[in-house]
Amino acid sequence: MSQLVDKVEVRPGVGMLALFPSMNYKAWYAIGEFVDNSLQSWRANQGRLAEVGGGTARLNIDIEIDRSGGRITVTDNAAGIYTEDIDRAFTPAAPPADSSGLSQFGIGMKSAAAWYAKHFVVTTTALGEDVRREVTFDIPRIVEEKSDHIAVTTTSARPEEHGTTLVLTELNHPAPTGRTLGKIRDYLSSIYRHFIADTRVEIVVAGKRLSHSTPDFLVAPRWSTPDGDAETWRKDVAVYLDSGRTVSGWAGLLAKGDTAGAGFALLYRDKVVQGAGGAARDSDGYKPVKVFGRGNSFESQRLVGELDVSQIEVTHTKDSLIWHDDEEEEFLEKLGQELESEPLPLLKMARNHRTTERGRTIQTTVRDIVEQVAQAVAQPIPEVEDPPDEAAALNALPASPPIEESVVLDDTEWDVLGERLTISVIDNPADSTHWIRVRQEDGVAAWTVTVNRAHSFTQSFAYLPGMDLEPVLRLAVAIALAQIKAERSGAREPRFIIAELNRVLTGPLAKKAAL
């Protein structure tokens, strides 16, 4: 017969319970605390659960959201809360006897529930015990009466039953829907990525099972040997700190640049505690400047990884790390060295690798940029008189050779400053000598300005999707318009400037220095 518990102590909960609703939580953080408890119960009792589960310890966590009824229900089939843990489980800031798991500080579930609701009920049945227990928290009444204990209602249960249900009502915050519900799913999918990768674990949020996909890694030759063999740019890394603590995991480069998807995820006991990434969109991947650089760097678009930081302490909210003295600086210095180590120097590859991406998304981006540039240059500009020494016959330099083997990303005609101007953006890797062309076909009124996005200058400084093509395209169109106006005014050799510009841009000015 299981021992009967008729009440639980909530001291020092009276004061703390009153403070919990004002904590700086988000809906996805709070629900994550409930999932922590379920996962820890499952993880600590897998042997017992396997015995009654046909040899497999399966875990189902179901989060139901009833917006119309103002109710959130979290149900699991983990091992339940055992008699010896009942009192501690409901006392705020009472850590478990075994603090080596996800339930480390003894505050998460209580604080999250009190933040989310004025009223919540926990019903639990521990595997192997013949009793079901129910504890009801009425936060306003507990605070008003300064209660130190809460009654536990018990009913009989079969020893093979197991699991816990948490029901939140009288919510302090609206039951999540729409974007908030999407953030919850994204966030939980990211922080519990290692758990849901286990086929035995199923987490369902509002009827949708969570999943997490692994990134596609860059497969390409080394930047310095573009004709060499392709390599997969992913490797295991390990950083050994002077304190004796170790941070290990993997790092790699994304196949396609993705600022939101890049960055490191730091995992503590298999849960992401920092760097959940684009999950909730207010939680970026871990991108320290010392490794990723500033702004929209190439590293911040491609570098990705997962690092196990379980040997580093975490805050009680389990969303950041506690470093000793200058240990984080030491860690970042050694991490950078590890990332740059041969035979796969990831940072150098991220900075120097270029690929010309094509497809509908890129075409749409280019088309939008062309339209913005055309509208900008269509605005009137002050007229200026030609210098007296610039009156000359039209330049007789030969036109640029025809474009071959190119892909046209956009080719649109615009009215610009009284001219019919076609702004054409192409991908032509075979032509390394012409960044910009300006020509007028015989018998055709419109001028054509062609910018080669595959040229090394554009690839180095206006690479899409990670970098901005618009300012470079604006400059190219401005140069082209200057030549056209010069030809119209009879300037001497107006085409010489663009011909010389193309020649200069076949050299080092067209390329970023390798760092």
Would you kindly provide a written description of the structure presented here, covering whatever features stand out?
It is a single chain. With 515 residues, the protein is α+β, with helices and mostly antiparallel strands. Helices cover 30% and strands 24% of the residues. A 9-stranded mixed sheet has the order 1-6-5-4-7-3-2-8-9. It has a 5-stranded mixed sheet with strand order 12-13-16-14-15. Strand 19 and strand 20 form a beta hairpin. Helix 2 packs antiparallel against helix 5, helix 2 runs parallel beside helix 7 and helix 13 packs across helix 15. The longest helix is centred in the last third of the chain and has 20 residues. The radius of gyration is 32 Å and the shape is elongated. About 5% of the residues have low confidence.
Percentage beta strand: 15-25%
Helix-strand category: alpha+beta
Low-pLDDT residue intervals, each spanning 5 or more residues: 381-406
What's the helix count? 16
Proportion of helical residues: 25-40%
Distance between the first and last residues' Cα: 71 Å
Q: How many distinct beta strands?
A: 22
- Any idea what the radius of gyration is? 32 Å
Mean pLDDT equals 82
What overall form do the CA principal axes indicate? elongated
Q: Note the main sheet.
A: 9 strands, mixed
Strand order of the largest sheet: 1-6-5-4-7-3-2-8-9
